Amino acid sequence: MNTEDNNDFYDDELSRSLISNDFEEDTPRRKKKSKKPLMICLIILLIAAVAGGTAWYMVQRHKPVTATEEFLTGMQNMDFTTMENLLQSHDLSALDDADIRDSAYTDFFTTVNKKMTYKITKNKFDIQNGTAKVTVHMKYIDGTNIYAATIQEYTRKVAVAAYAGKEMTQDDIQEMLASLLAENASTADEKYSEIDITYPLIKIGNDWKIVSLDDTTVKVMCANFKSVKDEISSQLTDDSTADSSGTDAESTGAASDSTQATGASIDITTDKFSVRFKQFAISNDYGGNPCLMIYYDYTNSGDSQSSAFVDFTLQASQNGESLEGTYPEANDDAVDNYMNTIDPGKTVTVCQVFLLKDTTSDVTLQGKETLNVSGGQTTSQVLKLK
C-alpha cells in the first residue's frame, strides 16, 4: 500500500476543501433581488394618473359654473357685451322689450341690478355630451313699491302740468318718468324677492355658453316688471277701472247703508295730502237748479305742488243715483281752489258742487285717494238735508 500516494490524495482533497472554504468566505454572498421598489413605483404612478384624471375632470366640471358666474356678474354690472358673448344665441332683444337697454332708464336699472346677489346651488354636468345645467339662487330687488310710488307721482305731475296749461312732449314725459324711477329706487324701502333659475349650458369649442336669455332673468333685471311704459299704462288703466267700479258700487246704495251705520266722515290723511270736512250748503247753480256745496280743507302734505283735483276724488249720490258736478251761480274762491295748484305745506278751503235730485233726501258722500294704485283709503259719510 502506497502510503505516500494516499497522503498526497488526502492532502489534495483537503487543499481543495480549504481553498473552496476560503473562496466562499472571501466572496460576498449574492442576495435575492427584491420586487418591492418596483411595486411602489407602479402604485405611485397609478395614484398620480388617477389624481391627474380627477383634477382634469373637476376643472372641466367647473367651467360651466365659471361661465354662469361671469354672466351673472354681467347682469349686476349691466354689462351687455359680456352677457351677449356668454349666450349661444347672442340674442338680448328681450331686454329691449323691457326697456332695460333704453338709455333713459339706465340709472334706474343700474341701481336695481347692482343689488342683486346670487349663489350657485347645483351643477348637473355631462362631460360626454358637453352639456350642463347650473342652478342659481338669486336675491333681487322687487320693484313693486318703487313702481307704485313712481306711477303716483308721475300721474300727479302730468295732471298738474296739464291744468297749468303746460304742454309736455313724449320726450319730456319719458325724461320725467325716468327721473322719478331713479329717485324712488334710491329712496324707497328695499324689498327683495328670491328665486331659483336653472341655466342650460353647452360646450362650444373650448368655451361654455348659456343657451339663451330666459324670461325669468329678464324679470329679475327689470325688478318684476316686463316693460316700464307698458306697466305704468296698465296700472293707470286698472286704477281708472277701479274708479268706475267704485261709482257703480256707490249707485247701488250699499256704501250708503254702511256709512249710515258707522257715522264715518270723508276726512282722510295720507303722506301726500289731508282732507277735513267743514260744512255743506244748499244753493242754486248757474242754471237756477238746486245744488249741494261741500266745503272741506285740503292740505298739501307732499314735497311738490299739487291740488285737491289731483289728489282727492269726491263722489255724491242721492237715492242710489250719482249726482253730477255743477257750478254755483255766485262766484266762490273755494270752488276755484279745487283745481288751483297748492304749494307744499299749504292749506286751502275747497268747495265741490253737485246738482241735487231733490232738497230733502239724504246725500251720501264718498271720498278716496285718486292716485293710489293699490286702492288707498276710502271714506264716506251721510248728509241729512232735512
Q: How would you characterize the overall build of this protein?
A:
The strands form 3 sheets. Strands 1-2-3-4 form a 4-stranded antiparallel sheet. By secondary structure, the protein is α+β, with helices and mostly antiparallel strands. The model is unreliable at 1-15 and 236-263 (pLDDT under 50). It has helices spanning 3-26, 36-76, 80-85, 93-97, 106-113, 144-163, 170-187, 215-221, 228-251, 254-262, 308-311, 333-337; strands spanning 117-126, 131-141, 192-204, 207-210, 268-269, 273-284, 290-300, 312-318, 321-322, 347-355, 363-369, 378-383. Strand 6 and strand 7 form a beta hairpin. It contains 12 helices and 12 strands. 44% of the residues lie in helices and 24% in strands.
**Strand and helix order:** HHHHHEEHHEEHHHEEEHEEHEEE
Shape label: rod-shaped
Q: What is the strand arrangement across the widest sheet?
A: 1-2-3-4
DSSP helix fraction: 40-55%
Biggest sheet, in brief? 4 strands, antiparallel
Low-confidence stretches: 1-15, 236-263
Average pLDDT across residues?
Answer: 79
Task: Provide the gyration radius in Å.
Answer: 44 Å
Distance between the termini: 178 Å
Which structural class fits the helix and strand makeup?
Answer: alpha+beta
Total helices: the number is 12
The proportion of strand residues reads: 15-25%
How many beta-strand segments? 12
